[in-house]
Amino acid sequence: MLAALAVAGLAVAGISAFTNSNTIDSGAADVAGYSTTSVSGVHAHSITYTTNATGDTITDVNLVLVGDTTHDDVKLGYNHNAVSLCSDDPGTYDNVNDVTTYDCVVSWTTSTVTSFELVATNKVNS
Question: Looking at the predicted structure, is the pLDDT value of residue 30 above 70?
Fold first, then answer.
């Protein structure tokens, strides 16, 4: 059974040419226990992850970003390593709820992840 848990205390970094404020919704990062939560460049409604049945590997990072971010390159990584383009980029925009969802496939050893990085860069300016 896969366990989906909210990622907590994210060290999240983002870059966007057209964003002036940084926001992560209350409750978007409440469970996992990384050291800090910081969002820059995108408004994160929720960030969750899925583990394999034994819980020793993070297999998916699920993002819900506010607004239409399909024109952004959404990249993620952990422990300050190089970030990689989300496998689900450009995501799926929901114009009714004004959010873009991403299901980024990863294979990270749960016990080694101490920080999480999210970088959003506007494709027009990159």
Answer: no
Beta strands in 7-78 (DSSP E): 23-24, 43-51, 57-66, 72-78
Q: Across the beta sheet with 72-78, what order do the strands follow?
A: 84-85, 72-78, 116-122
Strands 57-66 and 23-24: unpaired
**Amino acid residing at 88:** D
Position 22 scores a pLDDT of 42
Show the beta-strand stretches assigned E in the chain.
3-6, 23-24, 43-51, 57-66, 72-78, 84-85, 92-94, 99-109, 116-122
Residue 87 pLDDT: 93
pTM (two decimals) = 0.72
Q: Which residues pair with 124 in a beta bridge?
A: none
Tokens of 22: 């940084």
Nearest to 48 by CA among 69, 67, 25: 25
Q: CA 63, CA 53: separation in Å to the nearest integer?
A: 21
The 10s digit of each residue's pLDDT in 45-54 is: 888 889 999 9
Rg (CA), the chain: 13
